[in-house]
Amino acid sequence: MEALKNLDKILGCLLRGGSVALLAAIFVILIANVFVRFFPVTSFGWFDEIIEMLIAWFVFLGAAALWRENEHFVVSFLPDHLKGKTAGHLLDIVVSIVSLAFLAIFTYYSLNLTMRAQDWTPIINMPKKLLYASMPFSGALMIVYSVRNIIRSGGRLVGRQR
């Protein structure tokens, strides 16, 4: 169990660090693009393709990082009202199961899209699969963490009923 906790901590650092690095890269490239528009020293023809890929990976890795730590947006009126009660634990389980179902569908179809993708970017000739791969990768991580959340909520529910 300790090995899983260590793996989770490492994965959390990689997700957060990766998101920060991607955001920094987006920022640097955007600033460079603005600079090059005023002082045309080089061509940024590849700009759109790289930014598109960086933003896709940033969004989906960031979503997985937030999902891992349960920091994503949530309307918390009802969960806060039921917190610590049996109904609250049941609500957590139901919400996690619905989320898991959505993530399973999302991951399945995004993996299907990624596997079927045949197109390449026009300037740098990079396969679009690299861009699309951010979706099933992050979806799979969020599925794992949804299962973890169901197990945790179930443990709290069982512990509460004893």
TrEMBL record:
Domain of life: Bacteria
Pfam family, one: DctQ
Chain ranges of the Tripartite ATP-independent periplasmic transporters DctQ component domain: 26-152
Membrane spanning stretches: 20-38, 50-68, 89-111, 131-151
Membrane topology recorded in Swiss-Prot or TrEMBL: Multi-pass membrane protein
Keywords assigned: Cell inner membrane, Cell membrane, Membrane, Transmembrane, Transmembrane helix, Transport
Subcellular location: Cell inner membrane
Alphabetical list of InterPro entries matching this protein: DctQ, TRAP_DctQ
Family recorded in the similarity comment: Belongs to the TRAP transporter small permease family.
Protein name: TRAP transporter small permease
Annotated organism of origin: Anaeroselena agilis
